[in-house]
Amino acid sequence: MFFFKAITGLPILAALLTTGLGHPVNVEIDSRSLKSSPFNPSIPVPGVEPPKLPSNLTASTIDGNELRARGTVYRPTVGYFAGFNVGAYTSTGACKSLQDWRNELKQVKAYKSSHFQFTVVKIFTTSQCSALKNALQAAKEVGGIKVWAGLWATPISTFNSDKNELGRQILGSNGNLILGVSVGSEELFRGSLSSSQLAGYIWDVKGMIQNSYGKTKVPVGTSEGIAPLLDSANQQVLDACDAVMLTSYPYYGGSRIDLALKAFQQGWWALGAKMAGKSLIVGETGWPSKGKTIGQAVPTVPNAKQYFKAIACWMRATKKPFFWFSAVDEQWKSGGVAETRFGVSWATGAKKYPLSC
Question: Which of 305, 289, 271, 281 is nearest to 342 (CA)?
């Protein structure tokens, strides 16, 4: 029998129990030993200086940015879209070239069906591998795709490089293709930042791009699991965000595939009740096509197809924005076979199943 517990010490939430599931809905097994990071620490992160500002803008300190954000708070929102999480690395873990980015975004665009048009990609770092610069250039050339820029938040030197690179690119010729910004990825889940640190980083980035640079229509938030976001001790993170990107994997919760939609929905509704009008986006969800069985969650191609049809089609029908995880299998990852098999297509580019309802 599997032992289920809440992430980061959050007590099991009785309100999230679903009859017949036999485990907490969307409160995952402590999967830190199973999940691997979307960030490859073996690749150096370049030191990036702040951008040279146009004459109508003035540089400011981190504290100044935070104060401006708290003083004049912009709350941009987003409507429905369908998109994919896209990594910065090749199948071997090396940096993608600009041509690799072109090829992958062409592939994402070609996933279009009668039910879905995938128009946004979310990345996890801006400076490492020139990820944001290359993603934006490829998006411009391919057309019809925007980028949700993710900033890797630890250590502080990487956060500063990613933040400065974001500043350079959002003020650049392709800056209009940045749809939104995510500060950190599952920082509370991994325990890499405290809630006050993460909230401060979010205010900092909001202050930079919205208050200092005038990009008031670009939402800033974070990507995080359901349990930390429902923990009242982390309310300051929700307060800082314009948009919250929910990371939800019923597979890691041991859910049976036919009950996975119910598990997913209960987490969504519980968090939605705390959003106070802010945008709630699925930042990551998916089902692996191969790997370890967890509880009653079996990773197979048919189950991955069933999960996509259940979740993505519900999101489409109810006009909820989402990023699927992921566009292509990521074979460079560690953490178990399942972590390398979340793509809707194989590493060769061939789709595993139709992306339709």
Answer: 289
Number of residues in the chain: 357
Strand, helix or coil at 243? strand
The Cα 239–Cα 262 span in angstroms is: 27
Answer yes or no: are the C-beta atoms of 245 and 282 closer than 8 Å: yes
Annotated domain spans of the chain: 76-340
Number of CB atoms found within 10 A of residue 144's CB: 12
Does residue 24 register a pLDDT over 50?
no
Instruction: Give CA–CA dist 60/51, Å, rounded.
Output: 12
Report the first-to-last Cα separation within the chain, whole angstroms.
34
Contact 29, 295 (CB under 8 A): yes
Contact yes or no for 285/315 (Cβ under 8 A):
no
| pLDDT at residue 88, rounded to an integer | 98
Per-residue tokens: 235: 């309310």
Question: Residue written as tokens 């965000």?
Answer: 241
Residue that the structure tokens 């974070």 belong to: 222
Element (H, E) at 18: none
Q: What are phi and psi of 137, to 5 degrees?
A: -65, -45
- 338 vs 333: CA distance, rounded Å: 10
Superfamily name and number for 76-340 = Glycosidases (3.20.20.80)
Cβ–Cβ under 8 Å, residues 146 and 178: yes
Could you read off the pLDDT of 135-176 as tens digits, one per residue? 999 999 999 999 999 999 999 999 999 999 999 999 999 999
> Angle at CA 59, nearest 5°, toward 54 and 60?
155
10 Å CB burial of residue 256 (0-12, 13-18, 19+) is middle
- Residue 53 pLDDT class (50, 70, 90 cuts): confident
Let me know: does 229 contact 271? Beta carbons within 8 Å. Answer: yes
Q: Residue 223's pLDDT band (boundaries 50, 70, 90)?
A: very high
Q: How far apart are CA 210 and CA 216, in angstroms?
A: 4
